[in-house]
Amino acid sequence: MELSKIPGGYALDKELNSLDRFVLDYVSVLDREKIGYVIVSGYVAILFGRSRSSEDVDMLIGKIGREKFFKLWEDLSCKFECLNTRDPADAYDEYLLNDTALRFSYPGKFIPNMEAKFPKKPLDFWTLEHSQKVILNKRMIRISPIEVQIPFKLFLGSEKDIEDAAHLYEVFKQRLDIGLMEDFARRLDVEKEMRRFLK
Asked: Is residue 196 part of a domain?
């Protein structure tokens, strides 16, 4: 894996796994439809070399109206299927507008799947607005800033999440904006947990 800092994010060259290829396939549709998005949570650590499995990828998408969502649904349906519902109106009204994620996978498969939802909390909106680009083998995806991802993983608090946070800190410790990371640690009330990473 070769990682370098570039304006607005990172460039990463590595051997792609099946989850990477799934993510690239999915975000290519969002890019084509000009839908803003940010990938958050476990896949970010996996992207940067964390060796663990994951059945889903978590994503926030920018809020869009029904007409634009129906067009996105049509485009996604060429390569993916929704695991929640077959009805785009139901998907929009009963899921997205009710803060419930939609799950998309390749047809006939349950995993991996993309779990996509609208932003709800202030941190969601901030993360979407300040997403970082990753040029992955010359193709772009957008991820949560690492300075947010690490304290958020500590906030979630499971053993898996803490190991994700530790992995990201080890990979990025020479490139982090420590002040920004500490600010989000305060907001999420994980300052104590953060101190052990900053020793």
From this structure: no
User: What contacts 96, CB < 8 A, 6 or more positions away?
Assistant: 69, 102, 117, 118
Q: Give residue-wise pLDDT tens across range 59-81.
A: 999 999 999 999 999 999 999 99
Tell me the residue range of the domain where 117 lies: 17-44+52-124
The contacts of residue 133 (CB under 8 Å, 6+ apart) are 6, 8, 9, 10, 140, 141, 142, 143
CA atoms within 13 Å, Cβ hemisphere of 137: 11
For residues 19 and 165, give the distance between their C-alpha atoms in angstroms, rounded to a whole number.
Answer: 20
CA atoms within 13 A on the CB side of 86: 1
**Closest C-alpha to 35, from 68, 77, 58:** 68
CB 156 within 8 A of CB 58: no
Residues 6+ apart with CB under 8 A from 195: none
Give tens-digit pLDDT for 150-198: 999 999 989 999 999 999 999 999 999 999 999 999 999 999 988 887 7
Helical ranges in 50-134 per DSSP H: 66-76, 88-90, 122-129
Does 60 map to a domain? yes
Q: Where are the alpha helices (DSSP H) in 114-187?
A: 122-129, 146-156, 159-172, 178-187
Amino acid at 35: I
